[in-house]
Structures are given as structure tokens and as C-alpha cells.
Amino acid sequence: MITKVLMVCLGNICRSPLAEGVLQSKVDSEKVFVDSAGTAGYHIGNQPDKRSIAVARKYGLDISQQRCRKFDVQDFTNFDRIFVMDQSNYENVIAQTKNEAEKDKVRLLLSEGDSTIIEVPDPYYGGEDGFESVFQMIDNACEAIAAELDTK
Ligand code: 4NP
Questions:
Q1: What CA–CA distance (Å, rounded) separates 58 from 11?
Q2: Which residue among 24, 38, 106, 118 is the one 20 to 30 A from 88 at the CA level?
Q3: Can you tell me which atom of ligand 1 is nearest the CA of 11?
Q4: Ligand 1 center from residue 13 Cα (angstroms)
């Protein structure tokens, strides 16, 4: 059976598109489906931020075909695991759950891997450096998720 994983941030143009591309690159697409969404609808239909596209390209990934969409409660049914980037995304998503089973699907991305910090910081208003460090945090967490999913 295919495991469906959703990556969630605020805008779905900086962090979660990177997480989608990075995790998908580490798993067998016949076993794991990855998508991403934002809790806000500011950028629906847009490409990822140019700085996310650039840092992904630097590491050999093309995320330019992704398009922004808003998180929807239907995602609790459609996905098995939902990874959020920060505490604010976590609270937003948890507030939309209807039961414990839905709550159980939601985790902070950096609870996976060996990060000492718990949130992937929002890089939108910062410089290019922010995107590099965000990429590294996401990559580390996705390595752990991919290893876990591979054993299924
Ligand atoms: P993201 O970053 O949540 O990582 O996609 C942001 C993108 C856009 C905005 C905020 C955060 N915005 O306010 O438009």
C-alpha cells in the first residue's frame, strides 16, 4: 500500500515545497506519495519561491513544477502522515482536526531526525542563507522519514 505524506507550512511557497521535493527524492514513488500545502491561501496557484527553487536546484532537485495550494480538512482523510514546519502551523492544523486519529497524523517535521531545534524557521523575509539552512534541516528530517518508511 502507498503511504501518503503531506508537508505543511504557512505559505506553501518556501518550506513545504522543499520538504515535498526532498522527501520524494529519497523514497520509491510507488511506495510513497508526497504533497505539500499551506495553512494560508496567499499564493494559491503560484510556483515555489525563487529562492526555494534555487536551493533545491543546487542539490539536484527540480521543484519548479509544484503549485501552491491551501491545506484542506479533506487532507486528514487523504494523507497518512502530516508534517508541519513550525508551532504555528501545528496549532493551525490541530485546530482543524475532528478526532484523535486525525491528531495522531500530525507531527512537527523536526521531531524526525537529529535536530536540536524543533521548528523550521520561516525564511520568507530573510536572505538566501536562510534557505540554505532550511534545506539542511529539511534534508536531515526527510532522511529519517525515508528510512522509517522504507522499512514498511
Ligand atoms: P512558507 O513561507 O510558509 O515557508 O511558504 C512563507 C511564504 C509566504 C508568506 C509567509 C511565509 N507570506 O506571508 O506571504
A1: 22
A2: 24
A3: 5
A4: 6
What's this model's pTM, rounded to 2 decimal places?
A: 0.97
Q: Whose Cα sits closest to atom 12 in ligand 1?
A: 11
- Cα–Cα dist 152/137, whole Å: 24
Instruction: Give the residue numbers annotated as catalytic, written as ranges.
Output: 9, 15, 122
pLDDT digits (tens, 9 = 90+) for 82-141: 999 999 999 999 999 999 999 999 999 999 999 999 999 999 998 888 999 999 999 999
Which regions of 39-105 does DSSP assign to beta strands (E)?
81-84
Give which of 105, 110, 112 is closest to 147, Cα–Cα.
Answer: 112
120-141 per-residue burial string, b: 16 or more CB within 10 A, e: under 16: bebbbeeeeebbeebbebbbbb
Torsion region of 12: left, alpha or beta (phi above 0 gives left; psi -120 to 50 gives alpha): left
Contact 109, 141 (CB under 8 A): yes
CA angle 150, 60, 17 (to 5 degrees): 70
Mutate to test the pocket of ligand 1, among 7, 8, 10 (most ligand atoms within 8 A of CB): 10
